Amino acid sequence: MKRAAADALRRWLRLLADQGITDGPLFRELSRRGKVVERRGEEGGAKPLDGRVVAEVVKCDAQAAGLDPAAYAAHLLRSGFLTTGGRDGIPLDLLMQLSGHKSHRIAARYFQTGAVHQNPAADLL
Description:
This protein has helices spanning 2-18, 51-64, 75-87, 92-99, 104-115. Helix 3 crosses helix 5 (104-115). It is mainly α.
């Protein structure tokens, strides 16, 4: 799965580069023809993908997989990232640099959920 995600990211970066986009938000809106939509944000730079769009994509993909879309939200992407990082032994500070979490207290809840699987004390439960 990790390799598939890395390959998908490389393809996306190539698509951006092919359209002359080399800076700004990583994830952006696409037109029906597959072109990146260049909307300007409040400060004049490219506008990042709207959270509502991400939520819609997550729910549509859940439904396409035969799952109940009401049980899935965009938030699961961030929390799943931290949980997986915890399982893989990645330091929380490094994960927070990418997840955008500002609070160690909040991020640690997800991180510990993942890290508990590697804790030898868990075998005592």
